[in-house]
Amino acid sequence: MTLHKIGLGGGCHWCTEAIFQSLLGVTKVEQGWISAREADTFSEAIIVHYEAEVIPLKVLVEIHLQTHSCTSDHSMRLKYRSAVYVFSKQQKKEVETMLVHLQPAFEKPLITKVLFLKEFKGNAEEYLSYYQRDPNKAFCRNVISPKLRILLANYSSRVDHTKIRLPCGEV
């Protein structure tokens, strides 16, 4: 199988990491900060390495849009840029087309940008696999778990259920 990669940003990289680590066909998630050719500032994001034969790019983009505020242009957008970071012109064209086709699922216009990844800075080891290390932390319970519940409700067949550990007593 051929591995592909895509960058995703929109919310806290701990949240995004936990969501995409849980998916079948995702082989690796790098968590940190990404800058784009079109926007030099770094923003929290991840790089997803995936097997397109198992989980197509369209599904990854759809999950990304459904699990962060992709229509809200809030005051923290410099830190949490809503973006898909691409590695080629072909990938950029594909994702832009996907966003047009996915727009009708949202009441408000998508603000998600398609940008060329310029640079990636990985997070410190102590913050990697943040949710997996302790899903009972308050931030995990209050912010990440609700997003994982959305993932389970809408994309259960795409989830590796052995990788999701909701906090004690949660379903």
Set down the secondary structure blueprint:
Layout: E1 3-9, H1 13-21, E2 26-36, E3 39-51, H2 57-66, E4 83-86, H3 89-102, E5 113-122, H4 130-133, H5 138-155
Parallel strand pairs: 4-5
Antiparallel strand pairs: 1-3, 1-4, 2-3, 2-5
Helix pairs in contact: 1-5, 2-3
Explain what the structure shows.
The chain has 171 residues and is of the alpha+beta class. It has one domain: Peptide Methionine Sulfoxide Reductase, Chain A, CATH 3.30.1060.10. Helix content is 32%, strand content 26%. The protein contains five helices and five strands, in the order βαββαβαβαα. It has helices spanning 13-21, 57-66, 89-102, 130-133, 138-155, and strands at residues 3-9, 26-36, 39-51, 83-86, 113-122. It has a five-stranded mixed β-barrel with strand order 1-3-2-5-4. Strand 2 (26-36) and strand 3 (39-51) form a beta hairpin. The longest helix has 18 residues, at 138-155. It is globular and about 40 Å long. The model has no long low-confidence stretch (mean pLDDT 92).
